[in-house]
Amino acid sequence: MRYLCVVLTLLAMPLPAGGQVQEFVFENGLKLLVKEDHRAPVVVSQVWYKVGGSYEHPGITGISHALEHMMFQGTEKYPGGEFSRIIAEQGGRDNAFTGADYTAYHQTLEKSRLAVSFELEADRMRNLLLEEQDFTKEMEVVKEERRLRTEDRPSAYLYEAAMATAWQTSPYRHPVVGWMADLNAMTRQDLQQWYQRWYAPNNAIVVVVGDVVAAEVYTLAKQYFADLPMREIRPPRPRPEVRQAGMKRLVVKRPARLPSLLMVYKVPSYKTALQSESIADWEPYALEVLNYVLSGSSSSRFARYLVRGAEVAATASASYSLIDRLDGRLLIRAVPVEGKRLAELERAIYEQIDLLQTRPVTQQELERVKIAVVAADIYEKDSIFYQALVLGMLEANGLGWQRADEYVEKIKAVTARQVMAVAKKYLQADGLTVAMLEPLPLVPTAAQRAPSAGGRHGR
User: Where do the DSSP E strands lie in 103-223?
Assistant: First the structure.
């Protein structure tokens, strides 16, 4: 299992020819999305719950991810380990992930085995045991995952510190994996309450993509999911981010090989743009194009002017969270070349941002970005898993799966003036957080500290 610390970017959208999505909603509130894709005798089944790290509050951070782990520890009908063993026995693969705005469980199987997935998922949707001994064991796994993926990785530690500084009131300030103090204090009863609160058919979306017939999938889903009892789902209280009143800066000192820079601009997501009277619905797509202009290929501005041109950056990239549930962020990550300081790298990045704010991107550059987006769409929708992922993310974040076929056309409609407009509006110092990683000497491992005995050693 793994968690998603970084919100995934929506890249591929129009549905392949002949692959229409069909939606079914059962009386207990469960939503089923089915998309037929008959290119291979395979099916992907995903169950999405509308709960993740941004639904949590201080004191229980990481509980959604911890519950994801416990979902594999068994029910009375299928005890611990049986879920994955049965899927593997059927020749399939299964896994799960937790994000800021959702938790999802997925299986890839030969098409005739879909009923196996449905039976197992329906059972653990309402019948999870959550035994004390399993909880104690699995929480140690979660804490070790935090140590390995965050505390022992300087770039991840910097990102976590930057998010906690950039966001003041938004729940995005908390890491999906949770703060260690909250993990240490978490109880089995906490998970039991979280499970009872959020894991119900009326808070779930089942997405099926593959070599199936939609009507048959509906009948199968009805057999396994339709009789599950619904629960009252109370959405989390709104926690909008307060307006930032000036640049924030922080320095993180960790054992690392190289210094690095992380810049966080607060920007709207597509959902929050649609909810706001002061934000045009094209602005998130202009931000997406801006992101591609800066980063994404060897011809992007960071690669051309920071890495190859000025040779101030060893690496430089940007990323934007288009479909977050709440207001999102545009991130810029960079590592200076040897001999260059972080301050020089930061200035070079500001120069590129200033150009975006004062000069429209060229038509040739704009067309190159749009061609890259279309190409990415063609390649990515070859994956039935990715097709299901897009539908699930859109639906879980409240945008609706119907927006899946809007992406490419909206990107194509973005103009150079619109890119310049969002650069001026959102890439401002007062809404910026700058985080710097200053390396400390690497701590040698026990093996490295051991004196050499000389000669050749076998393995």
Answer: 103-110, 204-210
Mean per-residue pLDDT, 79-101: 97
Contact 235, 308 (CB under 8 A): no
**Residues 134 and 79: beta-carbon distance below 8 Å:** no
Res. 149 pLDDT band, cuts 50 70 90: very high
The per-residue pLDDT for range 304-337, each reduced to its tens digit, is 999 999 999 999 999 999 999 999 999 999 999 9
Mean pLDDT, residues 228-232 taken together:
96
Q: Give yes or no: 144 in active site.
A: no
In DSSP terms, which residues pair with 35 in a beta bridge?
21, 209
Q: Which two tokens stand for residue 228?
A: 């599950």
Active-site pick, 36, 56, 68, 138: 68
Torsion of CA 191, 192, 198, 201, to 10 degrees: 130
Q: What are phi and psi of 49, to 5 degrees?
A: -110, 135
**Residues 400-417: what's their mean pLDDT?**
94
Whether 10 and 64 have beta carbons less than 8 Å apart is answered as: no
**CB within 8 A of 22, min separation 6: which ones?**
33, 34, 35, 214, 218
Q: Give the count of beta carbons closer than 10 Å to the beta carbon of residue 147.
A: 11
For residues 359 and 425, what is the distance between their CA atoms, to the nearest angstrom? 14
User: 80: how many CB neighbours lie within 10 A of its CB?
Assistant: 18
CA distances from 404 to 276, 381, 393 (A): 21, 11, 10
CA dihedral (57, 60, 65, 71) positive or negative? negative
Distance CA 341, CA 335 (A): 10
The helix (run of H) or strand (run of E) holding residue 196 is: helix 188-198
Residue ranges of E strands in 281-419: 313-320, 328-336
The whole-number average pLDDT for the span 440-453 is 57
